[in-house]
Amino acid sequence: MSYNPQGNTATEQMTKLGQAIEHESFAIVDREVGEHRYGPSEWPVVRRMIHATADFEFNGLTRFHPNAAAAGSRAILAGCPIVADVEMICVGVSKPRLAHFGCSVHHFISDDDVIADAKAANSTRAVFAMRKAHRHGLLDNAIVAVGNAPTALLEVIRLIRDEGLQPALIVGMPVGFVSAEESKALLATLDTVPWIITDGRKGGSTLVVAALHALLALAEQQSRGR
After folding, report:
1. Where is the Cobalamin biosynthesis precorrin-8X methylmutase CobH/CbiC domain (predicted)?
2. Catalytic residue among 51, 65, 107, 213
């Protein structure tokens, strides 16, 4: 098994050397993993997550709703917003790749009103950041990207269940020891909204960015195949 970039251009590294290094890295991951349980649209996501962390445990820890990869590609091709729990994700996602599809990326965790509301309610900024995104109409048909704050993920799940929120996809990979594992397990019980999660305590913004870049590449492949 070897890496095949399948003619992508917009979602490739910008220099020939950068492309060669990345392609060889992906090929090494393919060789060392060998056989795996993931489908052809899922493995590129897991591969890139392993590439970003050098942690082969994500071959197994990563789980997908059956419609996750397809839903993510469709949303990107439609120019969806991406709403993140923290600024790190917004900084990490390639701006030229987003611009190619007309996608925008948002976070509200540091907004003054979010901070004030969280303090007044003795809650977390992550909760009120997601509520603000919802008020602004950014969560429906969006990709919601959570890599740090379990409370952000729990709030999105609440909005889905109680207020009929319908994101296109949730990439739910909060890292840590308090509610991280539980929030992802709860997300995996949803069948009305596609999701990608990492089981257990492991997660983080780096993984979410890697998954988003993989989905952008899959979207480009889909667009070229039309």
Report:
1. 21-217
2. 51
